[in-house]
Write a structure and sequence with these properties.
Chain A: Its main location: mitochondrion. The complex is a heterodimer of chains A (about 450) and B (about 260). Chain A is of the alpha/beta class. Chain A contains 19 helices and 11 strands. In chain A, helix 1 packs antiparallel against helix 2, helix 9 packs parallel to helix 10 and helix 11 packs across helix 13. Chain B is about 50% helix and about 5% strand. Chain B has a two-stranded antiparallel ribbon. The two termini of chain B are about 20 Å apart. The chains are: A alpha/beta (about 450), B mainly alpha (about 260).
């Protein structure tokens, strides 16, 4: 289907929505969206009748918009209702409208395609509880500088949200893998999903970076549970602390269903709370890895019972099946499955449980012994990883499309982050597009010094 | 003295590309700052606006210039001069002065452009970014009346800071009667700019605490200089005081 026809199709479906939408906000938004989408010359491709109907109907909608108080229309951007009418009066003459960069819809559950490309803000208090770890460091810097946390609603995240909303919790957990080039926004899409699940009251098992567990471990102990495996007390205890912050309320509700013995004097009885296990792991650092293992096992077992929904979110999942840089005392390398944390996590990522979903992200930065250009699942996971994760739903995260790029620039301009005089001009924007190639990470770094 | 020598040299440069031959050593004549280009080469015009001006707006001279450039030989543009709208010659000069051992990549990443593969992400790696973030912090912490006074553009801060550091008058050692006297002397614009940048860089290199990175120290110094405080401004004032003290020696200058 040629792009012109496709866009006409889109316009028509939007037009249908506009006719049937009941909310005034929806009408106003669809009107604005129709104006955005209609570019020069597109009307000419249509048969004249439908154009006439469209314009007549639009005038009707516009009259409705005029009745809306400005407060309703304001959040959609800086266009006042008068300019809407002016746009229509000029017969939709394809002047590029001001990009809308923010939306007031802060609940991820209600994000739809119409919000695509717009930023929604997350309350800073929530950020501390939902994301004690797992946000990209530059995003944290940006949060600190702007005093607000805004994520862009993008297509891969919307797709994932749609799938998550329609999950059948009796079927085994579906695995979704976010992959893409470096800097395209995989981690932040994952954060969007986590925010959604946190709002929906799911239990979130978030491993911020799988690569941190397979390299630079200072203290590696032989595991007490299984002599062949290795413990990582520091990493495990840090993760348990963050897990506790993120899921406080579940720790006092879930009860473990088996007795676990820590050592000769300490044990955890059947029926005691999961919080106790986590406390034990945080206080007794030697048993932290085993505590993590217990937590994972119990959660997997009990998510099928339906008391809670479990979201397993792992960033940098290709670390689980790669190589490690850790060595034993005799300098022989350790394989990932010999690390207890990795072993238990692999069991978690298998789809033999139900009652939740598994969202994974591949990451080349931080990966070990993988070429820089590798970004596809097959390249990063290797044969072993791919077979272990197969079947999964791959979701490509790509660079910004022109609309998202405009929106991002607009967001930076609104926060006065782009201070250079030339950055406000068309020339400057074109240059930014060229230099960053619409790559979100590169654009962020470019705008940092401008 | 050098002029007649040049004329003979020009006669030689009938060689294909107009490049001067290497056999140019003449006793008693050393060339300082020579270029491989012979004199008929023009400097390149990097500015895009110059070429985009429509024909109607151009004056007679500009039209003549354009026509002339079509036939003249033009030097190659240096790699550091871009047609970018964000280019700033002062920043480029400063980066070049900060560069050590030809490592322009490092110097540039410290000053402006961040390197993509840098492992340490959580601190601003560039001076301009550090300056911007500090100013934003101050902006958010300030009350609405004070906000208008806080400058957040790192480029204006940089330019203003260096301008504040420029000395008005300089000292030159002049040999008279077997002794060197520090004589106050007016400085040219480029000498002043150079001195300001040099002082800034030496200050940041030498008086830095051990674990502090250059961008952080530089951003600190730039912000202090912007507010007319700090060690670099003090050094400028010291220079002025010395010049004032040696005022009597001013007649030693003969130019």
């Amino acid at each position: 289907m040629c792009p012109d026809q496709e866009s006409n199709q889109q316009l028509f479906t939007l037009w249908d929505n506009a006719q049937h939408s009941h909310t005034r906000q929806g009408e106003a938004k669809t009107v604005l969206f129709v104006i955005l989408l209609t570019g020069p010359g597109k009307c000419s491709g249509w048969p004249f009748q439908s154009t006439g109907i469209m314009l007549k109907g639009m005038r009707r909608l516009i009259s409705k918009v005029h009745k809306l108080d400005p407060g309703h229309v304001l959040h959609m951007g800086t266009q006042a209702p008068q300019s809407l009418a002016a746009h229509l009066d000029s017969q939709v003459s394809g002047q590029s409208p001001r990009a809308i960069s923010r939306t007031s819809e802060n609940d991820p559950a209600k994000h739809e395609e119409q919000h695509e490309g717009q930023h929604y803000s997350l309350p800073l208090q929530d950020m501390k509880t939902i994301f004690p770890h797992g946000l990209p460091p530059r995003f944290v810097m940006q949060m600190k500088t702007f005093n607000e946390a805004c994520l862009m609603v993008r297509k891969p995240a919307l797709e994932l949200l749609h799938h998550l909303k329609n999950t059948n919790f009796d079927h085994p957990a579906v695995r979704y893998v976010l992959y893409g080039e470096k800097g395209t926004g995989k981690t932040l899409s994952l954060c969007h999903i986590i925010h959604f699940c946190a709002k929906q009251d799911w239990l979130i098992l978030h491993i911020p970076d799988g690569h941190l567990w397979v390299k630079n471990c200072q203290d590696l102990l032989q595991s007490t549970y299984n002599k062949q495996r290795f413990d990582q007390p520091l990493e495990a205890s840090v993760w348990l602390k963050n897990f506790k912050t993120a899921n406080e309320r579940f720790l006092s509700q879930i009860k473990i269903q088996e007795k676990y013995v820590w050592n000769k004097r300490e044990s955890v009885e059947k029926g005691s709370l999961l919080g106790e296990v986590v406390e034990q792991g945080i206080t007794r650092v030697r048993n932290a890895t085993d505590a993590v293992g217990i937590v994972l096992k119990e959660l997997k077992r009990q998510s099928s019972l339906g008391i809670f929904r479990l979201l397993v979110a792992v960033d940098g999942v290709n670390a689980l099946w790669g190589r490690t840089t850790l060595k034993r005392e005799d300098k022989s390398p350790i394989a990932p499955e010999e690390l207890a944390l990795i072993y238990n996590l692999r069991k978690m990522v298998k789809n033999d449980w139900h009652g939740g979903a598994i969202v994974l992200t591949l990451s080349q930065t931080g990966s070990l012994f993988k070429p820089r250009r590798a970004c596809l699942p097959q390249e990063l996971l290797g044969k072993e990883g791919f077979d272990a994760l197969d079947p999964f739903i791959p979701i490509l995260v790509s660079n910004y499309n022109p609309k998202e790029f405009e929106s991002c620039i607009q967001y930076y301009l609104e926060n006065s982050w782009l201070q250079h005089e030339k950055a406000h001009t068309e020339e400057g924007k074109k240059e930014l597009l060229f230099l960053s190639n619409a790559n979100p990470g590169q654009l962020e770094r470019l705008c940092a010094y401008l | 003295m050098a002029a007649p020598v040049m004329k003979t040299v020009r006669g030689w440069s009938d060689l294909a590309l107009g490049v001067r031959s290497a056999v140019l050593r003449l006793p008693g004549l050393s060339q300082v700052r020579w270029s491989r280009y012979s004199p008929e080469y023009r400097d390149p015009q990097i500015d895009k606006e110059y070429y985009r001006k429509p024909l109607a707006e151009q004056t007679e001279e500009q039209k003549f210039e354009l026509e002339l450039r079509k036939t003249q030989l033009i030097k190659a543009a240096p790699a550091t001069k871009t047609g970018s709208v964000f280019e700033d010659p002062l920043i480029s000069k400063f980066t070049n002065m900060m560069m050590k051992g030809g490592n322009k990549v490092l110097a540039r990443s410290l000053m402006t452009k961040e390197a993509w593969g840098v492992l340490v992400h959580w601190i601003p790696w560039q001076t301009l970014e550090a300056v911007k973030r500090k100013q934003f912090e101050k902006y958010h912490a300030a009350s609405p009346e004070e906000r208008a006074a806080i400058e957040r553009n790192p480029y204006t801060i940089f330019h203003q800071a260096l301008k504040n550091c420029e000395p008005v008058i300089g000292l030159v050692p002049i040999l008279k009667g077997g002794h060197f006297y520090q004589v106050p002397v007016p400085l040219s614009d480029r000498r002043r700019r150079f001195m300001a940048m040099k002082w800034m860089i030496t200050e940041c290199r030498e008086k830095k605490p051990r674990r502090m990175l250059m961008p952080e120290k530089l951003s600190q110094e730039l912000l202090e200089a912007f507010h007319n405080q700090g060690p670099v401004i003090r050094r400028k004032h010291d220079m002025h005081k010395m010049a004032e003290a040696n005022r009597a020696l001013a007649h030693y200058r003969w130019w």
